[in-house]
Structure prediction request, 550 residues.
Amino acid sequence: MQSLGWQELDVLLITGDGYVDHAAFGIALLGRWLVAHGYRTGIVAQPEWKDTGGPDISQLTRMGRPRLFVGISAGALDSMLAHYTAFRKIRRDDAFTPGGTAGARPNRASLVYANMARAAFPGLPVVLGGIEASLRRITHYDFWSDKLRRSILLDAKAELLVYGMGERAVLEIAQRLEQERGLTGIRGTARMGREEDIPADAPRMCLPAHEDMLEDPGLLVRAASQLERQIHGGDAWAVQPVGGRSLLLAPPAQALSMAELDALYELPFSRKAHPAYKKAIPAEEMLRASITSHRGCGGGCSFCSLALHQGRRVASRSEESLLREAAGLTRQPGFSGAISDLGGPTANMWQATCARAHVCRRTSCCVPKICPFFRTRQGKHVAMLRKIRALPGIRHLRIASGIRADIALAEPGMLRAYTMEFTGGQLKVAPEHCAPEVLKLMRKPRLEIFEAFVQAFYEHSAEAGREQYVVPYLMSAFPGCTEAHMRELGRWLAARHWTPQQVQCFTPTPGTLATAMFYAGTDSRGRPIPVARADAARLRQHHILLKGRS
Ligand code: B12
Prediction:
C-alpha cells in the first residue's frame, strides 16, 4: 500500500488458498480486475483462525478497514472437498497451500472467514463468492454432515452472495456502495429480501421452501434442475422461501464479452505465488504455464459443478489475445518452452456458440445427441493451436484439460489433429462408465461414441508412429450404479486389457443434480434409483474396479 500510495483499501478480499498472482486463481483475477477499475484492493490469503476463544482478526486488520466491502472465498474448491477424501477421510495434501500440506484453511472456510470479517469490521458489508458459496447458494445437501443445509448466505450472516463468475457483480457492488445505493437486483447475486423487491414484470422461478425440502427429499432434485434452467435461461429471478423470509436470486450475470475477457486475462499477472512464501504452492507449479482460452461448458454432466457456476454458454477469448499471452509466456524467466495446458472446462469448445433463438429446455448441448444449434469451431481451434505452437520459444503445447469425444468425432480430421499434434503421449478422456443406465444418469454420451473415439485415437497414433495411450477417467458408486454395473465396467476394461488408473468414487459435492439424486434416491424425473449411500457400499463398488487392478 505504501509503495502504491494507498491510504486505505476500497475492497479487501479473503481467500482460503495461497495467493498466486495468476488468472487461474479466482481471487487474483478479481483483485486485478478491481484495481484495473480504480478500486484499491487488498488480499489476505489463508488467514490463521482459532476454533476457540473468538476469531483472530489481527491478519485481517493489518491493511486497515476497507472503505466499501470485504469479499470472501474458500478458494478454488469447496473447503470440505479440499479437506476430505471421497470416503470422508482427512486429506494430508492440499494443492493450493504453500508446501502442499493440508491444514491452512478451516472447514467451512466461508463461514469462519465471514465471522472473522464481521468481528474485524463491524457494519461493513460482507460478500461471499467462489465455488463454495456459489454451489451452496440455496438449500443443499452437505455430504460431510450428511444433511440438508440452508443457503450459506444465511449461515454466514453475509449481505450478499455472488454466484458464478464474479467480475461483473463485484464491480457493480463496489459502484453501488460507493454511490450509497441498495444492493438488491445485482445480476449474479443472492440476497435475503421480499418478493416485492422483484420487478413485477420480471420472469421468476419459485424454488421449493427450505422447510418443505427438509420434509420431501425429492424437492432437492427439482430445485437443482430449476437452478440449471435459471443459469442457462439467463433472465429469470429465483425465489426460495426460508424461515419465513425470501432468498432472492437475481438473474445470472451476463458472460464477459470476448474483448472484456481478453482485457481481463491480459492484466499484468506475474504468474507467480506471492514472494512472501518460502515453500512452493503445487497448484501454482501446475498452472504457471497454462492459459485459459474460454469459460463455460455445454456438456451438462450431472455431477459437474460448472453448469451451475460457469454455465453452459461458452465465453471465449480471441485468437490474438491468446497469441499475445503465449508470446508473453516465452519472455517469462524460467519458462521451459512447454505450455502445459491451453483450454477451459472442455478444450474443443473454444468459440462454440449457440444459434438457438428461443428458450432452450435441454439439459445438455451434447447429450443424447449434439444439439444442431450448438456450433463448435474445431477447425479454427486447431489453427489457433498451431499458430501458438509455431511461436518462437514454444517447444510444445498440450491440451491437458481434455477434449470431448462426441464433438471431436463430429468433425472429421479434428480428432486426428488433436491426437497427432497436441497430445503428450497420454490423452485424458472421461467416459466415467460403460453401463447405458449409468451413463444416462450422468448425462454422458453413449459408450459407442467413446469406443469410436478410442479406436480412431489409436489408428491416428499408429499412423503417426507414436505409442500413445488413452487414460480413461472412471467413476464408482454414482447414483443409480449398482455393484453389477461395476462388475460390468470391470469386464469391459478387462476385455480391452485396460487396468483402471483414474477411478474416482462419486463425491456428492454441493448443488449438483447428481448430489440431489444421491440424496433423494430418485432420477431427475423423481423415479426411484438404487443408491450406494453408506461408505461401506460405496467402498465395495470402488473395490470392484480396484480389485481389477491387483
Ligand atoms: C484446475 C482445477 C483443479 C486442479 C487444481 C489446480 C489448481 N487450480 O491449482 C487440481 C488438479 C488440483 C484439481 C483437483 C480437484 N478438483 Co478441480 N478444478 C480445477 C478447475 C478445472 C479450474 C479451477 C480454475 O482455474 N478456476 C478458474 C477461477 C478463475 O474460477 P473461480 O475459482 O470459480 O473464480 C471465479 C468465481 O468463483 C468468482 N469468485 C471467486 N472467488 C471469489 C470471491 C468473491 C468475494 C467473489 C464475489 C467472487 C469470487 O469469481 C471468480 C472469477 O470469475 C475447476 C473447474 C473450473 N473451471 O473452475 C475444477 C474444480 C474446481 N475441481 C473440482 C473437483 C471436484 C476436483 C477434485 C475433487 C477432483 C477429484 N475428485 O479428485 C480434485 C480435488 C482434490 C483435492 N481435494 O484437493 C470441482 C470442484 C467442485 C466444488 N464444489 O468444489 C471443479 C469446479 C470442477 C467441476 N467440474 O466441478 N482441480
